[in-house]
Amino acid sequence: MVSIILTSYNHGAYLKEAIESVLNQTFTNFEFIIWDDASTDNSWEIINSYDDERIKAYRNEVSQRGVYGINKAISEVAKGQYIAIHHSDDIWEPTKLEKQVEYLESHLDIGAVFTNAMAIDEKSNPFENKEHFYYSIFNQANRTRYEWLNYFFYQGNVLCHPSVLIRKECYQSCGPYRYGLAQLGDFDMWIRLCMQYEIHILSEQLVHFRVRDNASNSSGETPLNKIRMFNEHSVIMQNYLNIASCESLLKIFPQASIYNVNGECIPLYGLAMMALDVQNWSDLNLLGLNLLYKIVNDKELSQCAKTLYDFDYLKLVQLSAQYNVFSVVADEISYIKSSMRINEKSQKAECFYVLDTVDVQKYVFDLSYVEIAAPFILFLLEKSCVVEIERMALVFPNKHPIECKPYFTNALKEEKNTYYFETESPQIHFNFNTIINFREAKLELEIRYMNKDADALQECIRVIKQDKLSLLHKLNSQNKNYRLVYFGASSGLEKVYQDLKKEGIVPDFICDNSHLKQGTFFKQHSISSPDDILLQNYDFIVVITSSYVEEIKLQLHKYNTIFDIYDLVESR
Length: 572
Fold this sequence. Notes:
- This protein is of the alpha/beta class.
- It is built from 18 helices and 22 strands.
- An eight-stranded mixed sheet has the order 3-2-1-4-7-6-8-5, with helices on both faces. Strands 9, 11, 12, 14, 15 and 17 form a six-stranded antiparallel sheet that branches. The protein has a five-stranded parallel sheet with strand order 20-19-18-21-22.
- The two termini are 45 Å apart.
């Protein structure tokens, strides 16, 4: 038996579609719990207009938000061994429950089964804005639970809540939805779920997820929701502290194998390093620093960290100045990213922004303040840019200047002295540890901005696209024995197909996870499933022509016929 829980709040315009999509299910052995959160429109009247013995309707006297009704329904009402969550503005396909129940019945090792989802608009028509966040985010390939935990950590949530059918025992084992999480409550649940259970996604789009106008979804990108989301994210990432063994750490983060020294590791240290490596969530950087503080102040852990990684509290002191998680702005503090400037009086190099100019700009930085082990970092404009470094040199008293090169940049591409930055935080790092008496030196820099903002992004796209076309052209001319496959029948493929064809690069096959492709281009070209192509007895070169590069790379792991993989995503 399935217990369906539909949460309702002021969705009178869509509620009938949501309810009837449940009542029209081909699987009929269910109870239908509808929990209205004190709606002020006609929702309660609509709910009570249905005469079906399977419906159990409840209503809060005052609004408590959706999580209250879900938790109450699960703990006090639901009798089914499976729980399905539904939202009052979304729609289910008639066979959703039937296919999900059948899957769970035949796969006892799976804790929950999701489906892919189609985005629809206010009028229930297919959503047409391909650039919108929700357009295809809920169409995902399958992963192991460890791969999901890795994906959640770096990318975020891509599982559609109203698509889930979950064993009730999972809620009993993992705990209920947590109160106080308005934006990411389901994401928090999926992390806790994957800490214990495997999950599965049915490839069919059995849920229609409504994208509301003016960011009216509860998860819409309004300013207040964004603030709340970042705060909630910092809370739910604490779930990763439950990683108790090196084995689990390495299954979730294979890249942490460098912290496994002769079969020994400190899981907290490996997790800290993974958190510090994340660029788009500053709260994860803070999590990483806090774990390191914990390690250096624990006698046993600190000794182990010193032995395995040569890491101690002195290294942490240096490290903690490189992550500006609180966006500190201060004129007199060095190494703070958002206060990067030259001290006009002393001419000492504090962290600074290079001036916004297209002319050659000259800088002289006194290095006398730099700590021995601290890197010297130039932070450029807070925007994408293409810059030409005309001169970088260390100048010493009464000695010849030493031309120098950066030891690290986060440029997308370096070409001679030109650096292409698509990031909004361009950085050039120097390390002067090998220079004797570098504190007597000054760094002279001459820099020119070639492009900024949108122009810089277009230039980055151009050079990367050119590089990839050249590589593919070379590959195509040298390896005639391989079959060339384009994976991803996307709008991106339409954009690059003619360019590739001009280069003499024509695929032997085009494949995609979905056969529901529309438009003239896809009528002219045969689109096959990955299995139909990649299980054939050939050696394949796969070119990913979809924006879901990492997801497709994971999917391709199961095929042993692939010689190499490339992607043609224009910007990352």
